[in-house]
Every structure is written in C-alpha cells, then in structure tokens.
Fold Cytochrome P450.
Amino acid sequence: MLENTHQEAKTILQVRSVCVLHLLSHKMVQSFRIVREEETTLMVEKIRGSSVVNLSDMLVSLTNSVISRVTLGRNYWEGEASNEIMYVNQENEKANEFSSSDFEQKSKKTKSSVSLKGGWKLKEMIGRLAELLGVVDIGVYIPWLSWLNRINGLDGKAEKLAREFDEFIEAVVAEHVHGRRRECNKALRFNMTIWSLGSFLQDMFGAGTDTTFTLLEWTVAELLKHQETMKKLQKEVKEIGRGKRYIAEDDLEKMHYLKAVIKECLRLHTPLPILLPRESLKDVRVMGYDIDAGTQVLVNVRAIARDPSSWEHPEEFRPERFLNSSIDFKGKDFEFIPFGAGRRGCPGTLFAINVTELALANIVYKFDLSLPDGASSEDLDMSEGTGITIHRKNPLIVLAAERL
Ligand code: HEM
C-alpha cells in the first residue's frame, strides 16, 4: 500500500515535470499562440453578440477553453470543440505556420463542427474544484482536528470529485486511443495511471484558470474605475492596432502601457495571496525571531506587494509606477512576487501573461465598456470574495459598445 502511494507520488512528479516541459516551456507556450488567438477572437464575438455582458463568465470560459485545448486536445469546456490541436511536434509546427495577419481568416475556416457527444460536465466539475480549493482544510493546520473534514463532508466531496475526474479522464484517454489522436499518446510513454493524470489535470485547471481569469477580471474592473487609465490604454492599443480587425500577439511587444497595467493589477490584486507552504530546513533567526527547523512558513505576497516601505501610495492603482522601472514579476524582485519565486515558483507565468495580454488588448481595442443602468464607475463594487484565489465577490456585468 505504502509502496503504491510512493509510486503514485513519483508518477505525479514525473507527469508534472513532463507536462511542464510539454505544456509550459517557452517553446510550447509560443506554439499555442493560435489557440489563444482563436479563443480570444471567439470571446470578442460573443461579447459583440450580447447587450449586457457577464464579463466574468466570458473570462472564465476563455481561460478554461485555452487550458482545455492545450491539455486535452480540444475544447471540452464549452461542450463542443471550437477547434482541436495536437501536442505532437509535427502539429505544433503546423500551428506556428499561422502568421498574425492571417489568423483571423484561418480561425474562421478551422472552426470545427466536431461536437462532444453527451457533453462533459467539465464546467461543473471545475466549479466544484474551485469551491473545494477555497475551503480551509483544517486537518492540514491542526492534524488532530482532521476528523472534522469527515463530518463537514470535505473529504467526501473531494473523493467524489476525484472519482468523477477519473471517469472524465478515462473517457478522454479512450477517445485519444481509439480516435485519430493515437499519435499523441506516444508522447506520454511513461507509466501513468488514470489517477495521476486526473490529479495533474486538476492541478492545471485549478492553478491555471482561476488565477488567470481573476487577474483579467480585476484588471478590467480597475480600468472601469479609472477612466483616464482606460483612455490611455485604448490610445496605445489603437495606435499599435492600426485599424486591423483584432490585436494579434505580434502587436503586444510594443504595448508598454498594457504591460504596466497588468503588472499594477498583479500587485494590487495578487490572485494567490499566499505562496505554497515552505518548510525551514534548519534552525534560523529572521529579524530577531527564532524559527525552528521543520516550521511551516507561509509567505503573504499580497501584503508584500502593498508594503508602504517598498511602494508609494500602495493602495492606489497607478500603472505608471511600472513604466520606467525594471521591477518585474519573474521572482528576482522580492517586493513583487505574484508568481512566487525559486524552485516552486509558478511554472505557468508565461502562459498566464500571454493569455492575459492578448485578451485585455482585444477587449479594450474592440469595446468601450460601461456599467449597466447608467451607474457611474465610482459605483462599481470592488468587494473581494474568500478563498485561495481572491476573486471579485460579484461578477463583472458591463455594457460593451463596439468601438468604430
Ligand atoms: C495570473 C495567473 C497566475 C498566477 C498569479 C499564479 C501564481 C502562482 C503562485 C503564486 C504559485 C505558487 C508559487 C510559489 O509558491 O512560489 C503557483 C504555482 C503553480 N502554478 Fe501558477 N499562477 C498563475 C497561472 C498559472 C497557469 C496559467 C498555470 C498552468 C497552465 C499555472 C500552473 C501552476 C502550477 C502547476 C503550480 C504549482 C507548482 C508546484 O507545485 O511546484 N499557474 N502559481
């Protein structure tokens, strides 16, 4: 039994490192560009088709669709495939053939009609996963109280969800094995059980979608509140977009203000306020406090990002602070580590930033946003929800007028 557990743990690490290599390396993230561009285009079209828009829903759907397509090969999130990609090299080369100028046209052509029979409950399962992640697992902090998780149903809910994930993954794998994707499985030649694959996917969806959508949601909310910043951003994006139908990834490099806006939002609304727990390896003394070896250390990056000894007017949204500054989120500037730092730092940073920049640029390029019922932007509720990821408490509902 113990040996099995060790084997599974080893396999998860193996799956994680293979997947980080296959999904999150610089080269792979670049190769998923077509997926990001297509899904962003689809989102823009959906916004265009609605009068009052639940932007939070749109952003959840965007981030999950992108992750679904790159991890599972098609869009199981929307219940029907908007397109498919395979993560074998040959196919990625194909994806790279898309140039920014023709992606709009090709995305239309490649919009596939493949629909998923039965429709998977991925959306519903991810919703429950997010809910579970937001609940404090009391047993982790006070081991003798872990029995509470049986009483409050946390264990049962987690086990049920894990079983449903397994069934889902089994069906996806079966589809790959029996369908046209036989090739893909060559990439995954190690001894991977359904359980470890399911657990990896829960990690990818849990760590990758909620955080990215939260960042986008807060960024748009701050822009609504700060109309001058919104105008300045729209001006930059318009100048660089030069009348093209959609902003493509090639355009983003020059958008310095856009990057500053996103950084400022990562600072003020750090999606994951507490890093993964660390443990001190030896007895140390930090700022006069003695910390024994084996002590669990929780780093509050949100507090660090709002520390008045590092930031002027830390509670205010001021993207300009990043314009002529070398401070970045790559884990070297410790006053600003929204993606963590060191060996456990977020492996999905580039993935997240690419999705966020492209989506934000297209939203502000295509639409003028306002609040429904003539509400002024000062009325926008900025309350925070609870949970591991700090979402907005209430969804972001906007009117989106197309920019001409
Ligand atoms: C704005 C978006 C995101 C933010 C703010 C964020 C932030 C973080 C943070 C703070 C950690 C813990 C790092 C530490 O303790 O040092 C983490 C871990 C992780 N992130 Fe992200 N993340 C984001 C997006 C993503 C995406 C898009 C993916 C994958 C597609 C991803 C995958 C992961 C994984 C797998 C881990 C766990 C790494 C481990 O177990 O060592 N993240 N993330």
